[in-house]
Amino acid sequence: METKSSDSKSPTSSDHHQPSRMTRRRIQTPAASAAAAAFPEELIEEILSRLPVNSLLKFRSVSKSWRALISDKKFISAHLNNSSRSTNFTLRRIISTIILPYYTLKHCSLHSLLSGPLTNAVDSDYPMKNPQNSVRIVGCCNGLVCIAVNGKHFFIWNPSTRKYKKLPNVDDFIEQGLFITKYGFGFDESNDDYKVVGILSGFCNRDRYETMVKVYSLRTDSWKRIEVFNDGLPFDDTAKFVSGKLHWGKRNGSNSKWDIVSFDLASGVCGNVARPSYVETDFSPSLGVLGGCLCVLSNSRKSSVDVWVMKEYGVSESWAKIVTVPYLDVPWEGPYSTPLCVGSNGEILLMYGSNLMIYSPRDNRFRRPKIRNFGAFLEADVYCESLVSLV
Question: CB of 307 within 8 A of CB of 348?
Answer without folding.
Answer: yes
